[in-house]
Specification:
The protein is α/β, with parallel strands linked by helices. It is 52% helix and 11% strand. The protein folds into three domains: 34-207, P-loop containing nucleotide triphosphate hydrolases (Rossmann fold, 3-Layer(aba) Sandwich); 211-285, Orthogonal Bundle (Helicase, Ruva Protein, domain 3); 291-395, Winged helix-like DNA-binding domain superfamily/Winged helix DNA-binding domain (Arc Repressor Mutant, subunit A), CATH 1.10.10. A five-stranded parallel sheet has the order 2-3-4-1-5, with helices on both faces. A three-stranded antiparallel sheet has the order 6-8-7. Helix 2 (34-44) crosses helix 4 (68-85), helix 9 (213-227) packs across helix 11 and helix 10 (235-246) packs across helix 11 (251-267). The structure holds adenosine-5'-triphosphate (ATP) and magnesium ion (MG). Residues 68-69, 148 line the site of magnesium ion (MG).
Length: 400
């Protein structure tokens, strides 16, 4: 048998450290987010100068891939270091609400950060909140909770957001034990929250602007430098990558593209990445987050999204009506011999796609019976999206 590993290991690699291109890797230097880190430090300074006197609630907004998560994780480390140096007890916990979709899961995750052995079941959310607060009081601890991708919790966990923002308010002169940083792409998703929670969260907003072209170049070059061997990629090529990434504003796309181009160069036994590697890498790459999201969608949702994609592709227009999409959806379901979902279920799917930033919907009329929506997929290539959905459906055993 041929030992491919043996062969591959003999080949000199173009990577110095592949893991540093990983999208979850937080570098120890975040270029061009100094200002945001400074503002965060200013806002949270009181946690260190006067511990447990104040509870901070901050909201961070900004488009996908502009470094919100990375910056807040980085800041978490910063504040813990500053606290430890001064013997102040602060714990930092980063919750991804897309993963922990219910109040209960979020609370368990928080509880387990304070007490690793805490059992997973047997408590109501209200009880959990009380136990958390009791622990914080007993341990003289302040908790900085980051609720990343907060929009996922809004439908289901509005109450939790309310409780967490109020957790300290119960008695006068009680210590303030919890601070919160919420992260959302788009602030409009907050409109479903009750007015007082919304106004609490909206008091301090830090909006992360898209990186400029120069900034995008610097960041991608820095990430390439720490992950690839010297001279693996020229500045000229970094410029072309910057051009491709800049329009989308998503650094994650750039990191993926560099990674792919490098893999292609290795496969071709090249000593540097060349234009062709980038072209090939870009060809079948769809922006990371939707790709990631697609793999989590069930068959029905994928088929519905496929109908929208196909409808748009076929008509050549930028928008498609919900009614047209449903017609195409029905035909696909019929061909596959599967049951169609109801109108209101499809409407819910649409809201989910919207939240995931795959589509945008222009609502023409809101009345329940007459909901009319014009759907748009502006961000990605329809051909790539269609191919990706078909690929995933195939992996689930459905050939279209
Ligand atoms: N200034 C920077 N320096 C180095 N890497 C960065 C910088 N900004 C972003 N990145 C990298 O880009 C990728 C995307 O950033 P991040 O995950 O923080 O985006 P985000 O704003 O949270 O996006 P989303 O809304 O999709 O969650 C990450 O791998 C991150 O490390
Ligand atoms: Mg993020």
């Amino acid at each position: 048998m041929i030992d491919y590993f043996d062969e591959l290991l003999k080949q000199p690699s173009l990577f110095k450290d592949e893991s540093k291109l990983d999208i979850n890797f937080v570098p120890n230097n975040l270029l061009h987010r100094e200002k945001e880190l400074y503002v965060l430090s200013q806002l949270f300074l009181v946690l260190i100068t006067n511990p447990n006197s104040t509870s901070r609630k901050i909201l961070i907004t900004g488009k996908t891939g502009v470094g919100k998560t990375a910056t807040v994780k980085f800041f978490g480390k910063m504040i813990i270091e500053a606290a430890v140096k001064r013997h102040i007890f602060i714990k930092h916990i980063h919750v991804n609400c897309r993963k922990e979709r219910t109040s209960y899961k979020v609370l368990i995750k928080i509880m387990r950060t304070i007490n690793n052995n805490f059992p997973k079941r047997g408590y109501s959310p209200q009880e959990l909140l009380e136990i958390i607060l009791e622990h914080l009081n007993n341990q003289e601890l302040h908790l900085l909770i980051v609720l990343d991708e907060l929009s996922y919790l809004i439908n289901d966990g509005g109450d939790l957001i309310y409780s967490l923002t109020r957790i300290n308010d119960d008695s006068i002169n009680s210590k303030q034990r919890v601070s919160i940083i919420g992260i959302v792409r788009d602030i409009t998703c907050l409109s479903k929250l009750d007015a007082s929670t919304m106004s609490t969260l909206q008091r301090n907003i830090i909006d992360f602007k898209n990186y400029s072209k120069e900034e995008t170049f610097d960041i991608l070059k820095f990430r390439a430098k720490i992950s690839l061997i010297d001279n693996a990629i020229s500045d000229e090529l970094m410029n072309s990558i910057t051009e491709l990434v800049h329009n989308k504003g998503d650094i994650r796309y750039g990191l993926n593209l560099i990674w792919r181009a490098c893999k292609i160069a290795e496969r071709k036994h090249l000593r540097h990445i060349n234009t062709e590697c980038i072209r090939l890498g870009n060809q079948d790459l769809i922006p990371f987050s939707p790709q990631d999201i697609l793999t989590y969608l069930n068959e029905q949702k994928l088929i519905f999204l496929l109908s929208i994609t196909r409808g748009l592709k076929k008509s050549g227009k930028t928008q498609i009506s919900l009614a047209e999409s449903i017609n195409i959806y029905k035909i696909i379901c019929e061909n596959l011999d599967i049951d169609c979902r109801s109108y209101s279920q499809l409407w819910n799917y649409l809201q989910e796609f919207k939240r995931d930033n795959i589509i945008s919907v222009l609502v023409q009329s809101e009345s329940f019976k007459g909901r009319k929506g014009l759907i748009e997929i502006a961000e990605f290539s329809l051909i790539k999206l269609e191919a990706e959905i078909i690929r995933i459906l195939k992996s689930k055993g459905l050939s279209i």
